[in-house]
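Section 3.1: Structural characterization of target chains.
Under the original work plan, the team committed to producing a structural model for every single-chain target entering the pipeline before any wet-lab resources were allocated. The record below documents one such target. The sequence was received from the expression subgroup and is listed exactly as submitted; it comprises 626 residues.
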Amino acid sequence: METKQFRAESKRLLDLMINSIYTHREIFLRELISNASDAIDKIYYRALTDDTLEFDKDDYYIKIILDERNRVLKIIDTGIGMTKEELEDNLGTIAKSGSLAFKKENELKDGYDIIGQFGVGFYSAFMVAETVTVISKALDSEGAYKWESQGIDGYTIEPWEKDTVGTEIILKIKENTEDEKYDEYLEEYRLKDIIKKYSDFIRYPIKMDVTIKKFKEGSENEYEDYLEEQTINSMVPIWRKNKNELTEEDYDNFYSEKRYGFDKPVKHIHISADGAVRYNAILFIPERIPFDYYTKEYEKGLELYSNGVLIMNKCSDLLPDYFSFVKGMVDSEDLSLNISREMLQHDRQLKLISKNIKNKIKNELLALLKDDRDKYEEFYKSFGRQLKYGVYSDFGSNKDMLQDLLMFYSSKAKKLVTLNEYISGMADDQKYIYYATGESNERIEKLPQTELVTEKGFEILYLTEEIDEFVLKVLMAYKEKEFKSVSAGDLGIEDQENENASGTEDTANKELFEKMKTILSDKVKDVRISKRLKSHPVCLTNDGEISIEMEKILNTMPNNQNIKADKILEININHNVFEALKDSYEKDQEKFSLFTSLLYNQALLIEGLQINDPVEFTNDICKLMI
């Protein structure tokens, strides 16, 4: 019997396919089951145009037979089968797909589509088998044929006996090596696990004899094993069911079964799209943050299916980083795939699906914010930080997408508010959206810098996370209202009367402030009369884009560049402390230097900054007590 050579490339290409294209050997079973499903689909399509052929779905199935002793695994289907020529064309030429040719020649109907666009999937069998045998009898054919190959050395084709139409693939599983354990593909539970993982939603039953324990006849405590044929796959995926037929419990069960999380999702999103690209998706917004979410081990992405066949466990291209917390799956018939299901092209269809999913997630979050505020706030406590990172990253390119989802604690409402809610409550004469930064809401409420803004009745957003101020710097404005820190040099709310009074006091106390500036020359950029302080004697503000809070955060980074904000020491001239300061300036320069140092260190403590010399500070306090 003549051994024929493969007509594509030789040993190198086959080695490349087996060793490089697939990252997990277990997918060989997915590929062979998908081919079997294709073969049954072809009979279905033939029946649509051939009145002599009846298609009763109950007659069509895929059967897995395991012979552990002889190291043999069989995959049998009742599909359309292959003639001798088709065996040679489809299996003798690497990267040729009979399903792809069939698909191009025919217009498919009634929701049946041919999965096998993938060419080389059949050859994945050589990753686990030393010999691959294919026995097939084609529809309308008198005889059957056997195709057999051990891989790189070519293949043989000869007439064979087979009573029924369909294909039987026989794999002689390799012996174990030091690096690979091939025995696992002869284990019943392992095969069931692979089928459930990759082929659970193939539309035809995948049958397998499964070992069941039962009591021995006449015994109440002894068991015996027997084989029972079971259908391993679910067949009908939840995402293809009518939404009206599904309950909240159905979605929650699917979330648990797929092990998307141990919590209960805050919201599910069921998408059935039939536009420029066809796809179904079920997405979940988790309730709690995964323990590894902010570690490098966390993998974002959605499960990706093509016609019910799992292609990728984590398709990261389907989700932007700022929505990386979303769990779920996407199933599409329109994806372009190259060589194998694992080498997905970043093509137009995938980008369209990704864009649609991104917009859908945003709209659903906005709907949750509007319709179920408590649930949204729970979600925001878990994942609000990620939304903020999304605004800050990529030079703010996603700020328009995310800004309406942001929330910050409000000085007036005493709860989280959106930027839109803040704008809606602004006074007519208010120019800016005011914010204050600090470690906690309680500490921010006590900040001296908030006094003037609060007195004017303006709302202040409290920023307590490290990322917050950086986010507002990127946003710059919301609905044409700029953001303004309560520690900024110009608050934009001083009235003319105060301006005139400050100008007069500046002139009268110019020499005093110049002297303070000299004493603190390496610590502050300037010393000024405060227009914002009411009951407190002193505070620090900043000039320029780098705030004091940003300085603290940037200097905790691993690549600390010792960035400094331009600090301004502001003095409340209406406070009794200023009278003591003024008196010391006129009568005791040593005490004046002491007071200046104390006021500066007080301002540092208020800001949560470290005092340069704590011992000197405590000694200065002691001097006042003596």
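The mean pLDDT is 88.
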